[in-house]
Amino acid sequence: MRKKRIITKEELINIGKDVFSEKGYFLSKVSDIVKKAGVCQGTYYLHFESKKDILAEIINEFHKDVYKILFEENYLYKDYSDLLIKKELNLFNYFMENYKTTLLIFREGYGEIEFVEKLTKIHEEMTKSRKDILEKLMNNDDVKAELYGYILGGILRGVFMYAVEKKLTKERYIPLLKEVLENFLKTLNLV
Question: What residue ranges define each of the domains in the chain, with the CATH number in brackets?
Fold first, then answer.
């Protein structure tokens, strides 16, 4: 008789991340997750009703981590330009350290209608964080601050995709991103 494997909800979530990253969320099946976990489907259903439940957990964890970086961490900074750079470097580093999850969420999460609102909220929070700092740098011009916050978000998505595709190490992508951020702020005459 084979010994039953005991697996936690967190372990199933991590295996789900791996499977979704390898196969894509929409091509993955619960059977792929349980096979990789080495458990029966019944064990899976003790923790989750469907594969959407795992994606929901992944998105919630991602959101919690991003929110913490944007609004709860205490940054030491000399001016608002420095604060913006430090927050963006922290956020970018989190995305790179969790690049498979980041790609999964932003590429495939929008395909599930239930998650669009949550993902939109994450984007709005990132934009708000940028806007709040840029507004202080731009003499309270909230329209320009919001516009440049969106533009900066687009630039950072481009740098993220480049860093992932080129498999850049932290030693390479941090100075590159810092240079991009400094040049962005210089272009706007904010440094």
Answer: 9-47 (1.10.10.60), 52-187 (1.10.357)
